[in-house]
Amino acid sequence: LQALALFEQPVHVLKQRLRSRCGQTRYRQRLLSQDGRILGDTAQLPAAGDLQLLILPLAPATETKADELIAAAANDATNEVEALLQMPQDPDLPDGDGDTALNLAAAFGCNDSLELLLEARADASQRNGHGLTPLVAAAANGRLGTTRLLLEAGASPNPEDKDSETPLFAAARSGHWEVAELLLSQRADCEHTTKSGMTALGLAALGGHSDVARLLLEARVEIDRVNAAGETPLLIASRDGQGDVACLLLKAGADADKETRGGQFPLLAACEGGHLDVVRLLLEAKSMVDRTGPDLQTPLMVASRCGYTEVVCLLLEKRAMESLHTWQHVCSSLS
């Protein structure tokens, strides 16, 4: 005890050390001096005498107290969080939506409150009413530090929500590449698919998040995996005009002509949207310019019908170059 007296908050430090012996957090511990005084966490240790350790049960659960803790955590009001946990209160009590204090602290990046809740053994994997864990909430909102704290606390990097999406999907959808990078370093499953067959790479392509796409490609994900509609990440990027992602995918070897069961393919999708830069990329990747899709429509026919003049000119230029090369080859053969 004399050695502990050198610390700024010796009672706090002693309780943390006792945790490994009694198996309870400091919030459920009470230290009594010989004269029967309860020593608060900020108190000084008595100069002499033995201390008695009491372990308190959790206080009866009430909706009011649960809401108070959740609101305090969501606003990073650490003094209120500390006081409520000292009751001691169950940190995992949910509100009417199934959200816990840890869930909202993670969503809002309230790391000081989050650390107190984790110290109180809040469940880092508890799901809310929508099946979302604190890690998903942190990843979706780009909370890098929060994500790191939860992973260090033992949260699984691969929990699935009701749609089978994981924290990596949440980061990919919102373009939070640093969070995605951290999750991948902790063995997040980069090949996981949702119930609809969507991949994290597909979500990155959908949102045009090239930094996330680059990370996933460096992790060697399957580049042409299709979703339930038969769409590859390249087709998704082409359809939505995400040129940076399309460029990355093509450089990484994506199949420029892979089609869906309905006959849709990247060049046709890009032409339907009038995405000139993507059309140019696909033509440079040797995508077949006269290939037909649904209703026997070629990319040129689709671009013409939609009035995309620049796309039409680019396609005609490509056809002219191919005709010239064919003619030169024929002449060379004849000579």
SSE order and pairing:
Blueprint: H1 10-22, E1 29-32, E2 38-39, E3 52-55, H2 63-74, H3 78-85, H4 101-108, H5 111-119, H6 134-140, H7 144-152, H8 167-174, H9 177-185, H10 200-207, H11 210-218, H12 233-239, H13 243-251, H14 266-273, H15 276-284, H16 299-306, H17 309-334
Antiparallel strand pairs: 1-2, 1-3
Helix pairs in contact: 2-3, 2-4, 3-5, 4-5, 4-6, 5-7, 6-7, 6-8, 8-9, 8-10, 10-11, 10-12, 11-13, 12-13, 12-14, 13-15, 14-15, 14-16, 15-17, 16-17
Structure, explained:
This protein has helices at residues 10-22, 63-74, 78-85, 101-108, 111-119, 134-140, 144-152, 167-174, 177-185, 200-207, 210-218, 233-239, 243-251, 266-273, 276-284, 299-306, 309-334; strands at 29-32, 38-39, 52-55. The protein is mainly alpha-helical and 335 residues long. It has 3 domains: 4-55, no CATH class; 60-188, Serine Threonine Protein Phosphatase 5, Tetratricopeptide repeat, CATH 1.25.40; 190-335, Serine Threonine Protein Phosphatase 5, Tetratricopeptide repeat (Alpha Horseshoe), CATH 1.25.40.20. The chain has a 3-stranded antiparallel β-sheet with strand order 2-1-3, with no helix packed on it. The longest helix has 26 residues, at 309-334. It is elongated, with a radius of gyration of 29 Å.
Short description, anyone?
By secondary structure, the chain is mostly helical. It is built from 17 helices and 3 strands. The chain has 3 domains: 4-55, no CATH class; 60-188, Ankyrin repeat-containing domain (Serine Threonine Protein Phosphatase 5, Tetratricopeptide repeat, Alpha Horseshoe); 190-335, Ankyrin repeat-containing domain (Serine Threonine Protein Phosphatase 5, Tetratricopeptide repeat, Alpha Horseshoe), CATH 1.25.40.20.
